[in-house]
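From the shared-data thread, chain only:
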Amino acid sequence: MDFGVHLPLIDFGQGSLTHDQLQTYAATADALGFATLSANDHLVWRRPWLDGPTALTSVLAQAGSMTLATSICLVNIRHPVVVAKWLTTLTRLSGGRVIAGLGPGSSDADYAAVGIPSDQRWARFDEAVAVVKALVRGDRAPTGSFYDAQAVRLDPLPAPPPEVWFGSWGSDRRLRALAATADGWFASGYNTTPVRFADARGRLDAHLAACGRSPAAFPDAIATMWLSVTKTQREADRLLNDVLGPVLGREVDELAARLPIGSPEHCAGVLQAYADAGAQQILLWPIDDPVDQLHRFDELVRPHVT
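Structure, as tokens:
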């Protein structure tokens, strides 16, 4: 199982990171051998949030050999043609592998901010994904009820084009759609467990086989896996009770059991359970002191996860 990292875009109380700090974080992740550098996406949220596509583009020079990813990009909110143009540019400028993790998002606030009814999110998403996938490959985009981009041609195009993955919490309807058209799957770290992940992956494999695709060749990653390797249980309890629990609106006991927040032994145990469940990659998101957390994870946790 590989490990990647999220850009720490959220201000959890220590202030939003500066450009220099983001660059240092990206360079540290590359030096420590993380496989992927990813950015999540919200326009508005419960805490201050740096723009994901902008932040990811700003650290290209420090990303080194890491794959660049979005996990996920809100394709409905940003418009599929705009997203496709950014992705083709990012892929060309980086000269490396780019994964376009796309999803409709689950926050009504993002939809309200751009004047789109949130009850249209899935209908729009199905059309938007098809548009992005066509445009980044230089194909003619299909026309639907919401988007007409048949006349759009995006030049210059990168070779190879970015991969188009779906973000899904694991509903069977979405897994079936994902199997038919996506290049990979992003699961959600704080919306799953090792048992649920293994079950969803099994159902996805069945859908892939039904579509004539090889499950063994279809990649997955678990995104938004909040991380804090703490020195004391008191520190872990503070992060869960005072920071993450209130922000996510989740039960603290639930988060404590499924996230690598706590002692090195606890963090390794949580991640080992996902490795045993068959996860191919996990994207870690340090909650506090992100550069130090990368080092602590590399020294105290990663060696104990097989």
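The CA atoms of residues 33 and 49 lie 26 Å apart.
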